[in-house]
Design goal:
heterodimer; A: six-stranded mixed beta sheet; four-stranded antiparallel beta sheet; 12 strands; globular; B: 112 residues; mainly beta
């Protein structure tokens, strides 16, 4: 089965703490893409990153970093020095060739950053 | 602004009425997707188009739902004989095939 699991329903941290959001995926395909999206309280889904299955390099963008490990089928997302504006629901998603690249979504993790 | 736009942003209707939503994708994108999202849940896939062809419809999409993308540009999603269970946020996204999907702000439907 093709599936994305975000086991953390809600995380609450104090501003400036580092926080990691977990994402575990299942797929039989060897060609696939992994994504993270942010949905702030305003509701609009904002694309953060796409990673293909052949590129296991970690990525850093400012305070955001992503750790892709095929050995554990994980694609975790870390926010360093969190800020109140990072408060949102974060979704991990998977797409693959045989699904015609439709997105399979995780349930989302609600991140609360307290001042 | 070259992002995905959706209209209206909010729609309140009475049960049994028909509603239509519009999505204008990013112009270069050949794929357009419709999703539904209820509170506390992730987006649920409804249907998608590649150019003007509707390639897949979810089993969630009852006969009361229909979507079109007549010239491969904007798309409309119509819900006939609305029910209270149709109340949700309807999201539109566009992409290149295999590429990341960019989402519009959504249309929030409330059925009274």
């Amino acid at each position: 089965a093709q599936k994305v699991t975000q086991a953390q329903t809600e995380i609450s941290v104090v501003e400036k703490e580092d926080v990691t959001l977990d994402c575990v995926y299942e797929t039989r395909d060897t060609t696939y893409y992994l994504f993270w999206y942010k949905q702030p309280p305003s509701g609009e889904l904002v694309f953060l990153i796409r990673r293909n299955s052949f590129d296991e390099q970690n990525e850093i963008s400012g305070r955001y970093s992503w750790n892709f490990q095929k050995s554990t089928s994980s694609f975790n997302f870390t926010i360093t020095a969190s800020q109140v504006v990072d408060s949102a629901v974060y979704f991990c998603a998977l797409s693959y060739l045989d699904s015609n690249y439709q997105l399979i979504w995780g349930a989302g993790t609600k991140l609360i950053i307290k001042p | 602004d070259t992002g995905v736009s959706q209209n209206p942003r909010h729609k309140i209707t009475k049960r049994g009425q028909n509603v239509t939503f519009r999505c204008d994708p990013i112009s270069e994108h050949n794929r357009l997707y419709w999703y539904r999202q209820t509170l506390g849940q992730g987006p649920e896939f409804l249907t998608y188009f590649q150019n003007e062809a509707q390639l897949e419809k979810s089993r969630l999409l009852s006969d009361r739902f229909s979507a079109e993308r007549p010239k491969g540009s904007f798309s409309t999603l119509e819900i006939q004989r609305t029910e209270q269970g149709d109340s949700a946020m309807y999201l539109c996204a566009s992409s290149f095939a295999g590429g990341e999907q960019f989402f519009g702000p959504g249309t929030r439907l409330t059925v009274l």
